[in-house]
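so my prof wants the structure for this chain in the tokens format not the other one, which i didnt know existed until like an hour ago. anyway here's the sequence
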Amino acid sequence: MFILVALAIYLMVSLFSYTADDPGWSHSGFTEKISNIGGFVGAWLADVFIYLFGLFAYVFPFMLAYAGLQTYRNRFTKEYYNTHQLALTSVGFVLTMMAGCALMKMHLATFSTTLPAGAGGVLGDVVATLLIAPFSEVGANLFIAALFLAGVTLFTGVSWMWLVEWTGKVVLLGWEQLLFAYGRLRDYLQTRRVVAQREETVKKTKERLPKVPPRIEPGVEKIEVAPRAVEERQSDLFAKGSSHQLPAIELLDRPKERFKGQSPEELEAVSRLVELKLLDFNIQAQVVSVHPGPVITRFELQPAPGVKVSQISNLAKDLARSLSVISVRIVEV
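here's what i got, hopefully its the right format
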């Protein structure tokens, strides 16, 4: 296996560095300096292969490397010692080379002037001439294509039906991925366009709306407990009665209030948010006053001329969803 792979690499390097100026088997060359990477032997082998097989000589190293890899992979199986399988592989190798050279000869004649024996080499010229004479060019193409497919199948063991199914599966999968990528790209562009329109609308609205901040009303003040109520709360701790009774609940102090409320800046920001959310529904209104509370915050709106109050009332649930609050109650005054 290693010998075949090394030989394939050496042939590949020699063939790809082939020049007609180097001395070879079909000509003596025009220079004494060898430019082929494979040296004198590489130049000579490259000239032999190109002369015999034409352009298909460049496929020969890959076929040789594939044969080496298959031999190494099947070294512990019965196919390694199967002479019948070895004969079929050899027949496939020969058919592939013959048909491939003939196809190069018939369809790549433009390279005939740059190669010693044409695009198909001597082998392609012989096979094409033998088949074109009795079957014409069309029939020869059909027979050569059939021989090429049969040779590839015998040499590699590849099923053309499996190859067609696999190709179709890959094409369908690629088409689905392409459609998915196109859909995501379209959604992304639409989102960018909507965001740009939204930013432009917000910018124009901010320029159009008056820059008057809403009036923030004072919150609910803490109610002081009157002295009378404090005195009435006092009672005899050791009142007469049964000894198992607990003291009255009025003896306990009231819990401290923890409601801090929102700052005026936060209330103004929420007011502007309410105005922008109403603009999403094509309703222009201005928050003129805010009444904060421990549970409910009241916003007084001044609708623009031509806006009906019923239009705002019908958007209670939509506004609650947009503002991320539990509920919104709209009261007409």
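also thought this was worth mentioning. Residues 160-208 form the longest helix (49 residues).
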